[in-house]
Amino acid sequence: MVTCCPPSPPTAPLAGGDVRTDLTAAALLDALPNQMCILDASGRVVAVNAAWRSFAAENGHCGGTFVGARYLTICDSTEGAEAGDARVVAAGLRGVLQGRLPVFEHVYPCHAPGRPRWFRMQASRLDDGLVIQHVPATDPARAESDLTQILSYIAHELRTPLGAIAGYSDLLLHAPDSVTPDMRTRFTSTIRDSSLYLSGLIEDMMDLARSQQQNQTLILNEAPCSLADVLAAACDMVTALAAAHGVELRPDALADAAPSAVVLADSRRLTQVAVNLLSNAIKFSPRGAEVRCRLRSTRCDGMVLEVADRGPGIAAEEIPVALSPYGRTASARTTGAPGLGLGLPLSKALVELHGGSLEIASDVGHGTTVTVSLPAWRSQAAAAASAGALAGATAAGA
Question: Quick one: pLDDT at residue 138?
Answer without folding.
Answer: 64
